[in-house]
Amino acid sequence: MNSKRLLPIIIFIFLSLSVRAQIDTSLLKTPQKPDTGKRKFSMDAIYDRPFLKVGKFPVAIGGYMEANYQYVGTSGITTGNQFQFRRFSLFTASSITNRIKFLSEIEYENDPTGDPDAIKKGGEFEIEYAALDIEFHPLLNLRGGMVVNPIGSFNENHDGPKWEFTDRPVAMSQMLPATWNNPGFGLYGKEYRGHWMFGYEFYVTGGFNDSIIDNSQGKTFLPAAKTSASRFIKSASGEPLYTAKISLGNDDIGELGLSYMGGVYNTWELEGAKIDNKRRVNVFDVDFNTTLPWSHTNIVTEWAYIALDIPPNYPQSYSNRQFGGFIDIVQPIIKGQILGWNKATLNLALRGEYVDWNVGNFQATGTRMYNDLWSIMPAVSFRPTPQTVLRLNYRIQKQRDITGSTIGATIGPTRGVSFGISTYF
Description:
The protein contains three helices and 20 strands. The protein has helices spanning 3-17, 118-121, 170-174, and strands at 21-23, 52-54, 60-74, 77-97, 100-109, 124-137, 140-148, 181-193, 196-205, 241-250, 254-264, 269-270, 273-274, 280-291, 298-308, 321-338, 341-356, 372-385, 388-399, 414-424. It is globular.
């Protein structure tokens, strides 16, 4: 068996055989200004997870899983009943010494919504995150290793148990590359002033490659860059990818995030000879989340705009501009004791999504290009505890090709039901 597949199994067996286990996040805490009761930033999501401490073992362990059932059809055409095991993730964390900590995440993923070739590959294990944090000051911390680029909110805060929907947002997984990770280094920090809070992140990492305009999708497709394992040791352009985010929050209003990611993506030089111009990709993202105090309604939204420099000989199906995002509205309707669980919640939820992979007009005719998708997804979710969710979704989706015709000519909207479970452990 491949060594990559053995490691998670060994950890899982070790965890199962341990008899002195208790929930303990003390390994993850470092001395700094107390923030107990304060609203968490999206940047805190990487450590804001339940961990398990085994006796006096110096490493805390945790993880999550996702499994789904789906039945989706388009004008009577369907693949029938589908059962999916999409993710199994294990993470470990340790305080090495005062103000120095380490966290890693190893994940099995088989999700065709984020990777169209996932089924062909049969899923894969990969190191999603493995980074060392060194705190010099609450406003100045160094992070290095395999990091998750802080573009938007979802890329950092993507764990399945935190969401009421079985599918990841289309724009964040099929326009932006969800869980986009790269080797590199960065600085981050945050500060509280009364009810206000400020946070920032700045990273210099490896980046994209030529596959974002040379892929099986036949369009500009940033997630294609995730399939290149060589990006973990070599940058196609030899240039860094810069990612920066500023977050502003208020305990009563919510959190606003503004982020940017950009750099040269193409192989422009080969063995010292220039073979192309340097071509950039730039991503601008805004995200916002809040909870309305009078109704406890949670609202999460994120929208991104992508601009690329495309070679002049490429067809217009490879767009130089893309735009998309989503909004989630989650309304708790029953909270308290349900079926013997003391802190259970029953929610109604709704997700609206839109993605346009070809923003702009045809050069020859001046008419609009489309290649877009919209989706509405009502949902019911039940949380026996905050760490576990059962979710029932119904999707109505319509997609058009570059000319504006519905995908499949006369085919109508796609409709489907999905049921899923996801839990931390």
